[in-house]
User: Which sequence fits this backbone?
């Protein structure tokens, strides 16, 4: 029977006796603004679909987003279409709340502001074959 030599931990024997480094001292995960903006746009789409029950085809153009991150806090700007008819004020508040919570959950950032710009109201039946008589 052969015996195996003892396994040396990565970094040498001195690494094995070193206490673990606290998370705050190991470094930080940096999430690019572009990624946070994509998460925010996706969260807005989720919020609209959940709020209105509309299919993606009836939600209009995909939301566009901008983000400013400073010191672990994010300020989000969203530009989106809303289906019509809808309670614009209530839906806007719910989208803002959902997006702020969702971006915070997924990124670990504190979201301090979510501003909305409503570009268009899209009729729930779509734009095809509409004619005024």
Assistant:
């Amino acid at each position: 029977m052969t015996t195996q030599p003892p396994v040396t931990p990565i970094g040498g024997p001195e690494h094995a006796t070193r206490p673990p480094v606290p998370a705050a001292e190991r470094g930080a995960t940096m999430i690019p603004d572009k990624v946070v903006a994509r998460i925010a746009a996706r969260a807005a789409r989720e919020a609209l679909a959940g709020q209105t029950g509309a299919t993606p085809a009836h939600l209009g153009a995909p939301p566009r987003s901008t983000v400013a991150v400073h010191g672990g806090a994010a300020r989000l700007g969203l530009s989106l279409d809303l289906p019509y008819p809808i309670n614009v004020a209530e839906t806007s508040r719910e989208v803002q709340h959902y997006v702020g919570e969702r971006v915070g959950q997924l990124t670990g950032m504190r979201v301090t502001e979510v501003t909305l710009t409503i570009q268009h109201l899209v009729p729930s039946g779509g734009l095809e074959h509409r004619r005024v008589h």
User: Anything to note?
Assistant: Residues 19 and 25 are 13 Å apart (CA to CA).
